[in-house]
Amino acid sequence: STPARRGSMMKSGVVLALFYALLLTNYATGASSPKLVILWPEDIEEENLDRTFEKIQGASSIHLQGNFDKGTNSSALQHALSSVPDLRHLTIDPFHDLGNGERAQHVTHTRTLVRSLPKPNKLESLKVSGLHVHDQLDVMTLSKAISSCESLRTLHIDPLNVGYRDVQSMDPFFGALAELEGLTDVHFGLFTFGNEEFADALASEGLRRLREAENLPTIRLNTASGNRILTTASEAARRAAILAASRDKRRSGSSQPKEVPAGSKVEQRLADVTVEDRNRIEEDYECGDDDDESDDERDEL
């Protein structure tokens, strides 16, 4: 063959190799991309189990939609979810769209949550709607369930319905949260059936318990009477350091913040705070120069 023909064949070979490489890349990308699967209660019925097991394989995110509390094969549900090794995100939503903008409002009982958690549990995100905590036994059940989620980074429960007549304390639940070292995003929509005094008591209880956890972020808790921020020990220390430095700067008229011991926790907190953070926190917690008592009260919010 002539040199020109050999050159043409080489070019064709290169193009073909690039084409197959592109196909392999696309295939690999598709295989590794997140896979979301939505399951309905009927998917767990005996006659549908085989098809369901096939459908959920390779899923990284599963959304349980509808009322899984009644007439559901609980052992089959947990077995199905446990068969998915890559499952990292689980959403439980008992609400069912009836059409015409209406939704059937079911609830998620703690027992439903427990039997929905895979074993072993490698969840990184857990989102639950309409969770009902009726009594102290439910509190203990919920606490145990959360403790099993050792890899959890995100927890959203909204609404979290707490029975104020039969629930004496949510301390075991908050304690279980405090022990999850990787938790970075926590949100509750607390509903106590109109008993705002009980909601305030729960918020205070959660604040005291969660301050024991240095690694937890700010916990956002929405109630009927407004939004509360449960500030953990690390965040409280950071905000206190910023406020102290800001007040000292205003009193002295100096642009330099108050000096803190080298290597101290306060110094580390200040080093991690951006200018935007300082301005935002000062605006949120603006106070008088000598109003130290009100500063303490702000840390409790």
Features:
single chain, 301 residues, alpha/beta, Leucine-rich repeat, LRR (right-handed beta-alpha superhelix), ten-stranded mixed sheet, two-stranded antiparallel sheet, 11 helices, 45% helix, 19% strand, signal
Describe this protein's structure.
The chain is an alpha/beta fold. It has two domains: 203 residues, Leucine-rich repeat, LRR (right-handed beta-alpha superhelix) (Alpha-Beta Horseshoe); 65 residues, no CATH class. Helix content is 45%, strand content 19%. The chain is built from eleven helices and twelve strands. The strands form two sheets. Strands 1, 2, 3, 6, 7, 8, 9, 10, 11 and 12 form a ten-stranded mixed β-sheet that branches. Helix 5 links the parallel strand 8 and strand 9. The longest helix is centred in the first third of the chain and has 30 residues. The chain starts with a helix and ends with a helix. Keywords: Signal.
Helices and strands in order:
Layout: H1 3-32, E1 36-39, H2 49-56, E2 61-65, H3 74-82, E3 89-93, E4 96-99, E5 102-104, E6 108-109, H4 110-116, E7 125-128, E8 131-133, H5 136-147, E9 154-162, H6 171-178, E10 185-191, H7 196-210, E11 219-223, E12 226-230, H8 233-252, H9 265-271, H10 275-284, H11 292-299
Parallel strand pairs: 1-2, 2-3, 3-7, 6-8, 7-9, 8-9, 9-10, 10-11
Antiparallel strand pairs: 4-5, 11-12
Helix pairs in contact: 4-5, 5-6, 6-7, 8-9
Major β-sheet, in short?
Answer: 10 strands, mixed
| N- to C-terminal distance | 84 Å
Q: Give me the CATH fold name of the largest domain.
A: Leucine-rich repeat, LRR (right-handed beta-alpha superhelix)
Name the helicity range.
Answer: 40-55%
Q: Beta fraction of the residues?
A: 15-25%
Helical run tally: 11
Tell me, what is the CATH class of the largest domain?
Alpha Beta
Mean pLDDT score, rounded? 73
Question: How many domains comprise the coordinates?
Answer: 2
* Large-scale geometry: globular
Quantity of strands, as a count: 12
Q: Name the poorly predicted regions.
A: 18-23, 25-32, 257-278, 280-301
- Label the structural class: alpha/beta
Q: How do the SSEs run, as a string of H and E?
A: HEHEHEEEEHEEHEHEHEEHHHH
How does CATH name the architecture of the largest domain? Alpha-Beta Horseshoe
**Rg, Cα atoms, Å:** 26 Å
